[in-house]
Amino acid sequence: MTQNVLVLEDSKTQARIVETLLIKAGTTVHIANDRLEALQKLKAHTFQLIVLDVFIGQDDSLDHLEAFRALAPNTPIAVMTAGQRDRPLAASQALNRARRSDVDFLLPKPFDLDDIRQICDEAGRIQRRKGPVKRILVIDDDAHSRIIYRNFLEDEGFYVAESPSVEDALLRLEMTRIDAVLTDIVMGGIGGLTGIKIINATWPAIPIIAMTAYLKNSDVLQDAMLKGAKLSIRKPFNQLQLLQVVNRAMAKDNDDNTVLI
Q1: Cα–Cα distance measured from residue 16 to residue 169, given in angstroms and rounded to the nearest whole number
Q2: Neighbours of 63 (CB within 10 A)
Q3: What are all long-range contacts of 219-223, with beta carbons under 8 Å and residues at least 24 apart?
Q4: How many domains does the chain contain in total?
């Protein structure tokens, strides 16, 4: 669990809300009301997580990330911003801006204790890993499957985040800095095909791997690739097969779209 957290928030009401949630999550919280105060605290203390509101008075926190990174180069940064959970396209645009700004997490408002705990846990996982780590986001509405795929990938040194739906994935805290997406196709909500289209349109450089056990329509995986998936794989698959497709998807010299049986 993350221990020492710096929060930059100029609204006293919002600062109290965030502080209360972080304390309930088991952290020690330092509140800064402006950018200069936050930088001073970074000089005086070591933090395991930095939480920034986007707009602090006339300041845009994303314009000053280099200063925060210079003082805390290995500390994960989460950015608080207004979320639109019922509008995934609008939310993905906010995430895209955060990605370009090289933040670790996006924390859409309103958020709750579970969101805070998730950020703290993930920040701890990031700091415990040494050296650059490839990040995979797994989207599947079956929790058991997500656990299996996570174990497969983490055994090989990948950092793995999970989402039960495309809607959740588009607001994932890790979505700002992932290296590949592994997504099921047949799910509730907007579904995998639409999700692939949205993710590919917003982050075209991120390879998407589509997967399904739904064989009634034999062209479903080809449809996924037409929507923007780089590779596709049929369930069930073993660890070696998954690692092969993930490594192929992330290979810079691999431009062909393939269905792996």
Answers
A1: 28
A2: 11
A3: 220/185, 220/186, 221/185, 221/259, 222/259, 223/193
A4: 2
Question: What are the backbone angles phi and psi of residue 81, rounded to the nearest 5°?
Answer: -155, 160
Q: Residue 132 has what pLDDT?
A: 55
Same structural domain, 224 and 112 = no
Does pLDDT of 96 surpass 80?
A: no
Q: Return the percentage of the chain with pLDDT > 90, whole number.
A: 44
Domain boundary among 127, 153, 186: 127
Show the CA angle centred on residue 114, arms to residues 109 and 198, nearest 5°.
55
In angstroms, the CA 119 to CA 111 distance is 11
- Please say which residue of 76, 94, 127 terminates a domain: 127
Q: Per mean pLDDT, which range of 76-80, 164-168, 212-216 is the poorest?
A: 212-216
Cβ 206 vs Cβ 235: under 8 Å: no
**Residue 12 belongs to domain spanning:** 4-127
Residue 74 belongs to domain with CATH number: 3.40.50.2300
Helix or strand (DSSP H, E) at 101: none
Instruction: Check whether 5 has a pLDDT greater than 90.
Output: yes
Structure-token pair, residue 18: 């965030």
What does each C-alpha distance from 238 to 31, 136, 138, 234 come to in angstroms?
47, 17, 15, 11
CA distances, 20 to each of 82, 111, 158 (Å): 19, 12, 33
